# Entry
Amino acid sequence: MPFVVEASLGEVGLSPGQFSYPRCIDHDETSLWIVDKTARVQRIDPQTGDSLGGWRMPEFKQGKPTGVSVWAPREGPDQLVFVPDTHYHRVMVYRVPKNPGSRVSTKSPEDVEIGRKIGVLVSELGTFGEGPGQFIYPTDVAVLPAADGLGIDRIYVCEYGGNDRVHIWKPTNNPFADRSTYEFVRTFGSIGSSDSPGNIQYNRPQSIEIDSRRRELVIVDACNHRVGRFSLDGELVAWIGRVGQEPGQLSYPYGLTLLPDGSALVAEFGNNRVQRLDLITGQCLGVFGVVGRGPGELATPWGVTRMGNRAYILDSGNNRVQIMRLPVRRTHAERSVPADGGGRT
# Structure
């Protein structure tokens, strides 16, 4: 069934606030951050859909980013935007102000499409390859804050393309400095479909989040049609999900956001829907959306994020963001199929 839409943001186009097949979304508590296939990183007002600024990636002929992650310290005027520059085999880190300011219209060629150029590149991680600290196609970043909330303890980077693993990096100086640096720590995982705790494998780990309450990583393993829970050191806790179209089953899960009650919303590229999943049992707690172009309908959604009591669904094939109020009841969906009896290790 279609879901109830509170509002819809964006439309197809190249002007500020418009999108050309957007593929990744995050938020910073006041704004949405969206990257589309024109390699534009846009900061979007979640109320009006206006562009509050952004930038175009420095290179984009080989391909466009498939991930964006925003981290803000507990204090200070600035925040960091991590962009896995997927087809250039690197992660770009930008410093931007927390305060989005007001909408600004300009006439320069680039700003006609962006609205206002913001963001200072402060770091670049990785090179092409299969060795330590090298990437093939990085997809997403998760930031583990330091205990005081003012700095970064480590970051996690997913990648696919043959490496299909997760990297751990640690900052070596102030991450907000103009030339901030990170050191590679290690990786975990390899390409494959094993579900054994002793042989962690992925087939396109597309999105990663940190469950701060459980102190775990949550990763959508897109081409294995499952979601994984891991310790912060990369030990498997459980896999949930298997391929299919029924509630509790998955088809190319690309996007992920965690909810306050410990469940997750998962955007399924292949099933044109968003599912709410219990991350302990694998039970489906709700299905939102069917394929289509109308309100509450989706076309190849790549992402979903949560801000307050609303979910922002990146309806990629329809070049828009659909907003729905978060469900408050943990109601099992009809015909829900637990993940092989629930979470498994």
Q: What stands out?
A: The longest strand covers residues 137-145.
